[in-house]
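worker-03 picked up job from queue 'complexes'. Input manifest follows; two sequence lines, order preserved.
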Amino acid sequence: MKKLLILFFIMQSPLAKDQTKVLDKVMYVNKIFAQVHKNPSKHSVYLTTTECGHPVKVYKLKSKKKSRILFNRTWKIVKVGSYDGYMNGEYLSDTKEKCFQDKYPKFFDSLGLEINEMFYWGKLYDQYVTGKSRAN
Amino acid sequence: MKSIIILSLFFMCLSGLSAEKSKEEKESELVDFSKIKDVIKSDGLEEAARKKSLIALEKKKKRLEKDKSRYNFPSEEDFWPFISEYWLVKNASILKWNVKKPDYGLDKSLEQLLQSVGVFEVKFRILLVDSPNIFHFSLPYKKNEVLFLLSIPFIRTMDLTKLEISLLLFEDYIRIKQGFFEEMAMTKEVKSILSSNFQGKKFDKSSLKGILERYDQIILTEGFNFKQQFSVTKEMEKVLKNNLKFWNSYFSLLKKIDNLVKGNTLYEQYIKIFPSPELQLNWLSPK
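worker-03 finished. Artifact:
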């Protein structure tokens, strides 16, 4: 029974045999802090917290047969340090933005943020419900 | 012998650390042009040397300016989003925003309401909190972006419709646009240091603590005064009276809040923060 279960989970793995992970580009974190998740959901387990301006390797998931991109929309497949996970694309930019901590480094350092505060700050962006009123 | 080696290594490291000067600056320090003045003059190199030293001076000035800018205090525009989020992070356990919440579809309904009343190109963020300690607020944020706080128990207890919740948030939008929160939260100390520089001085963190305490006072205990509430209510009247559906919903919302604060002891505090739904109804009722 155990073996069957293991086999089932292997079959369900997102990186099945006909899919490959290809390095797409390097992007940069654009929020003060942002979380890397284990799965593409804001409620998923947190792997690590990244700071604004941190470079992140972003991957595409391609089908071997049709060379079709299977995964590169809201959630990005990323590698941050030794962590392979997912980040919300809204927290990433193609170019390095001028972050608050870069603009005011001594002020930011003087706050002496604790690790749990950085962690919560990263979580905060996952909790927002966002929207925009448009002119049309 | 060992100590000499360690000492020499230490001094080498020190000299390496201070080697942030540009190439031109170093050159102008090393070469003493006065000793070979005539040769240089005949070769027309004096002018080149003068230009070089000017470049070095300019680079030095830029380097010092850059170093000084590292000690800048945020501008007012950058300060508000930062301090509002800092307050949210510091109060995560009281506010209980770090919980899994259902999708109420508030983004779409608020978008529609804003568009219907002619408020365009405004971004918003809603942070739903699982605490009855606070009710609904908008915090100072970016120029064209609004940050809302909304209590889930508060909206659930009254069984508000999406439109009523959106109207509640729109009232908060009007309140923040009128600048009441910023006015009350800002302290003299912080106002004087914003956009200034603290190089060579010690940054007194207690000034920031003062602002965070003001946030606590406004959101948790003191709230707004009658004059401010009157101004917000009259602005709501002006905007919503053109649309009967919105106008009736706003009236029904105020009635629901009035009934809640009168009948539920858990929400008695509401009239201290937003005085008062009963008065708001009176201000809006035709005489």
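worker-03 released lock.
The interface with chain B takes residues 32, 43, 100, 103-107, 110-111, 117, 120-121, 123-124, 127-135 of chain A (CB under 8 Å).
Strands of chain A lie at 19-29, 33-37, 46-51, 55-63, 69-71, 75-80, 83-88, 92-93, 129-133.
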